[in-house]
Design a protein that fits this description.
Strand 5 and strand 6 form a beta hairpin. By secondary structure, the protein is mostly beta strands. The protein starts with a strand and ends with a strand.
């Protein structure tokens, strides 16, 4: 089992920055990658970014590319999502998730590829 705890969410104005953290505990050796997803009210969950635990590969959705940066600190078993130039449409509950292996295709974008999920942290961006 892997436990994931997100933190760092909040309320801020458009154009601001926020850094989310995802702390992992438990059988952390079983992780292959960690991803961030988000879900806005009335919308489906969508992929945001992912990183292999080795840190050598990162993935981003087109909507956040160039504004968000995903990174990891293996020593602290923590993955970060630095979010800059935030927009009202970034408002959502942000979840981190851990995958124990890779799959074919664009697996990192698919929620079912991930085995463990955190409880989520709210990010609200006002205009």
């Amino acid at each position: 089992q892997v436990q994931l705890v997100e933190s760092g969410g909040g309320l801020l104005q458009a154009g601001g920055s926020l850094r989310l953290s995802c702390a992992a505990s438990g059988r952390t050796s079983s992780r292959y990658a960690v991803g961030w997803f988000r879900q806005a009210p009335g919308k489906e969950r969508e992929f945001v970014a992912a990183i292999t635990w080795s840190g050598d590969i990162t993935y981003y959705s087109d909507s956040v590319k160039g504004r968000f940066t995903i990174s990891g600190d293996n020593a602290k078993n923590t993955v970060f999502l630095q979010m800059n130039s935030l927009k009202p449409e970034d408002t959502a509950v942000y979840y981190c998730a851990a995958a124990s292996k890779s799959y074919g295709g664009l697996w990192w974008r698919i929620g079912s590829s991930y085995d463990y999920w955190g409880q989520g942290t709210q990010v609200t961006v006002s205009s």
